[in-house]
């Protein structure tokens, strides 16, 4: 009995040594309160026009949220300095610090237009615009792909600019860590979580298809925008692209590679034929067993 117990303890010790701390000790970068907010301001949240926000809209320590209605909130509530909004602001500070701990990564120029970027950490130089066209984020088949953009100063887009995310899945994350304020221009189609130290302005008809607008010390200003903390298509289940990173204590790390399992279209008909064939074979064996059909035996001369 004692020998068995010793062996069991030894096995546990070996497993702990090989695999380290339990994954249960790690958590996502965005805390549970923070991830529930699609829009979070510090001083005020102001909306003009018929913005549609999927998820909570909140402010803290300020108490002013205006423009709802005509703005519409689905799948969430409007919260002015509630306990959840207070906790979310605290978690936002922690998340911003965590992103900063990842370092500068790869240095890029001011304008990301025309680039295709694989998962990683990037520092983007300040400029009159950081996006004047289309930026493509290619996950290379990693369902846990993550992109972190360190913006030491501002985040500014030009009108009609676009961010695309391809070849990834439900574990992905996109984070824009903005050192001051973010301005998303008219008709921009944006993707990702904006964590701004100061303010965020979403100009007329700017859209964040999958992500959040989270301002740490100033206001969020909306104008006929569509922001979604939930995602569709290949990003469904990503909780507003808040995956890809794991936090354990004060350590932020990238999640391990996980393949995006999508069957090739050409294999689907073959799979169907295979199942049909197996079904017919099973039916034939059943009939033969019941003696309802006899298959003549052919004997060679």
Explain the overall architecture.
- This protein is an alpha/beta fold and 301 residues long.
- The chain folds into two domains: 24-254, no CATH class; 263-294.
- It is built from four helices and 24 strands.
- It has helices at residues 2-19, 32-35, 83-100, 267-289; strands at 27-28, 37-41, 44-48, 52-54, 56-59, 64-66, 72-74, 78-80, 106-108, 116-117, 120-124, 134-142, 146-151, 155-156, 162-168, 173-178, 182-184, 189-196, 200-202, 207-215, 220-223, 226-228, 245-248, 251-254.
- The N and C termini lie far apart (69 Å).
Descriptive keywords:
301 residues, alpha/beta, 2 domains, 12-stranded parallel β-sheet, 6-stranded parallel β-sheet, 4 helices, 24 strands, 21% helix, disordered N terminus
Secondary structure tally: strands: 24
What is the C-alpha radius of gyration, as a whole number of Å? 26 Å
* Low-confidence parts: 1-24, 263-301
User: Quick one: overall form?
Assistant: globular
Q: Which structural class is indicated by helix and strand composition?
A: alpha/beta
Report the helical percentage. 10-25%
Short structural description:
The chain is of the alpha/beta class and 301 residues long. The chain has helices at 2-19, 32-35, 83-100, 267-289; strands spanning 27-28, 37-41, 44-48, 52-54, 56-59, 64-66, 72-74, 78-80, 106-108, 116-117, 120-124, 134-142, 146-151, 155-156, 162-168, 173-178, 182-184, 189-196, 200-202, 207-215, 220-223, 226-228, 245-248, 251-254.
């Amino acid at each position: 009995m004692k020998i068995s117990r010793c062996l069991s303890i030894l096995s546990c010790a070996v497993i702990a040594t090989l695999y380290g701390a339990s994954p249960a000790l790690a958590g996502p970068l965005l805390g549970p309160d923070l991830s529930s907010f699609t829009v979070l301001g510090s001083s005020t949240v102001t909306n003009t026009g018929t913005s549609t926000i999927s998820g909570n809209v909140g402010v803290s320590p300020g108490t002013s949220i205006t423009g709802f209605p005509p703005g519409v909130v689905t799948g969430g509530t409007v919260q002015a300095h509630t306990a959840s909004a207070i906790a979310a602001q605290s978690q936002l500070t922690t998340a911003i610090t965590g992103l900063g701990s990842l370092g500068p990564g790869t240095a890029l120029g001011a304008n990301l237009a025309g680039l295709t970027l694989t998962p990683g950490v990037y520092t983007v130089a300040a400029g009159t615009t950081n996006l004047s066209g289309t930026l493509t984020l290619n996950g290379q088949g990693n369902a846990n792909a993550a992109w972190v953009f360190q913006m030491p100063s501002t985040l500014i887009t030009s009108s009609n600019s676009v961010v695309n995310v391809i070849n990834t899945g439900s574990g992905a994350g996109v984070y824009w860590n903005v050192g001051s304020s973010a301005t998303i221009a008219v008709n921009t189609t944006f993707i990702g979580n904006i964590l701004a130290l100061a303010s965020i302005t979403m100009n007329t008809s700017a859209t964040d298809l999958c992500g959040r607008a989270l301002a740490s010390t100033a206001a969020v200003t909306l104008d006929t925008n569509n922001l979604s903390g939930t995602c569709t298509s290949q990003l469904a289940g990503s909780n507003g692209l808040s995956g890809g990173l794991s936090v354990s204590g004060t350590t932020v790390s990238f999640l391990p590679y996980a393949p995006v399992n999508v069957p090739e279209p050409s294999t689907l008909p073959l799979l169907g034929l295979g199942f049909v064939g197996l079904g017919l074979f099973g039916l034939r064996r059943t009939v033969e067993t019941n003696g309802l059909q006899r298959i003549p035996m052919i004997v060679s001369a």
